[in-house]
Each structure stands twice: as C-alpha cells, then as structure tokens.
Write a structure and sequence with these properties.
The chain is an all-alpha fold. The chain is built from eight helices and no strands. Helix 1 runs antiparallel to helix 3 and helix 4 packs antiparallel against helix 5. The longest helix is centred in the C-terminal third of the chain and has 42 residues. The chain is rod-shaped.
C-alpha cells in the first residue's frame, strides 16, 4: 500500500479517538436527532474500521523463489521484470487543499455560533429566573416594587399620565 493511504488511515483513526461522542450525545434533545446521531456514529465506526483493516496494511512481498521452483526460472524472471517495471503512481491529494480553507471557515463560524448560543442561553436562563421570581412574588408585590425592577415601564406610564394618554 502507498504511504499516503496509510497516512490517511492513521489520521482517521486518531480523529476517531479524539471525538467526544458521549459529550455530543448529551447535547441532543429530540428522539429523531438521537437516531440520526446513532446512525452517524455507527457509519463513522464502520468506515474507520475499513480504513484500518484495508488501507493500513502493506501488501505481502512476492516470493519469487517459490514460483521459480514451481513454474520455472525463465518465465518467473520475465514476470518479475515486467512487475518491477510497473510504475505505480503516487497519490496526490488535490481535494484537501481546495476544501480545507472552507472547512476551517466553517469551524470558525461554528465556534462563533457556539459562543452566541452560550450567551443567548445565559440570557434566557436569567430571564427564566426573573420570571420565576416574579411569579412567586406577584401576589404580594406592590407597584413600586415592580417599577423598581422595571424602571422603563414606570417612565412609560408616567409619560402617558403626564400627556393625558389613557390608551384609547
């Protein structure tokens, strides 16, 4: 096997080990997404296994002496000469350089989206806590206590009263 194929198989194996499948699985909410995630993981494992078995092994060298004894040296030497004259082209990766920048840009975009999502989650958590606090205090809260937490509403109501606007 060519050295490039072995490098690809080794790189894929290393990537497979570094994927946090359990961490990603914890983030999935819906049953449909869990099924798709399980299919993705199973497919990745199958492909990774094939890469490790098929592409990471070097082929066995040809035992020319064994064939010389059974067939005859003249014919085997002719085949050996023809075999050794075959030039196997080296794999030149022209795809990765084209797509690596796009992939890197997507990873950066993903990181930015993750940060925005975390910020939005924090904001929503705070908002939920405020609503729950308001829900528990609503029965005993005065208008002044409510306006302390929401001064923009107090200003709006004061402006409406001052301008004699009663909503109709």
């Amino acid at each position: 096997m060519s050295g490039a194929g072995k490098k690809i198989a080794d790189a894929t194996f290393k990537v497979g080990k570094s994927i946090d499948w359990e961490g990603m699985a914890k983030l999935i909410v819906s049953d449909e997404a869990r099924k798709e995630f399980a299919t993705l993981r199973r497919t990745f494992d199958e492909v990774n296994s094939q890469l490790q078995t098929k592409f990471s092994q070097e082929p066995q060298p040809i035992d020319w002496e064994y064939y010389r004894k059974g067939i005859g040296p003249k014919l085997v030497d002719m085949y050996k000469e023809a075999y050794e004259s075959i030039e196997i082209p080296k794999y030149v990766d022209t795809v990765t350089p084209q797509y690596q920048p796009k992939f890197d840009a997507l990873v950066e975009e993903l990181k930015e989206a993750e940060q925005q999502s975390l910020k939005e989650s924090e904001r929503l958590e705070k908002e939920i806590a405020d609503v729950q606090e308001l829900k528990t205090k609503l029965g005993t809260m005065t208008a002044d206590e409510y306006f302390e937490k929401h001064p923009e509403l107090k200003k709006k109501f004061d402006d409406e009263i001052r301008n004699d606007y009663w909503g109709y």
